């Protein structure tokens, strides 16, 4: 009799697979609750949004926090994800010795298109909330607006999410959480 249960991987086992060349060089994979998840490919709109944010985010948080793009953060012992952007608590060593932990993530940002929107809402959002990440943004490229989530909580037994969801107007300039002097123009991200 064979075991039909999928194997739940730890982060160490996941890293061991990567070190042994299990993944192709251009393969984008996340570890979610011990399961390998193939990430959606990046389209033109997604790439343009990445570039626009990459131009502004590092300037907004310079020398007060760190910005990383599409790099790993650890949410728990068997979940390591790669948000499109993470604004991290400042670390003098730039997290050279270890991966950033959920408690060090000030803002997680996903850029979502038709391939990834449901995943970012249904899977990533509760993961980030359960990990205690205080602020989560989804740049919704389908509907051309920003979804701002805050106040993570256990909304019902075992079900995590955010108590507050806000969708600003397209012509607003939005401050980054914790950086009220930074104003991100949404018209730059979602041009007419």
TrEMBL record:
SUPFAM superfamilies the record matches: Restriction endonuclease-like
Entry annotated with the keyword Nuclease: yes
InterPro entries on file: Nuclease_put_TT1808, Restrct_endonuc-II-like, Uma2
Record's protein name: Uma2 family endonuclease
The keyword Zinc-finger belongs to this UniProt entry's keyword annotation: no
Sorted UniProt keywords: Endonuclease, Hydrolase, Nuclease
Organism of this sequence: Oxynema aestuarii AP17
A single MF term (Gene Ontology): endonuclease activity
Stored CDD domains: DUF820-like
Superkingdom in the source lineage: Bacteria
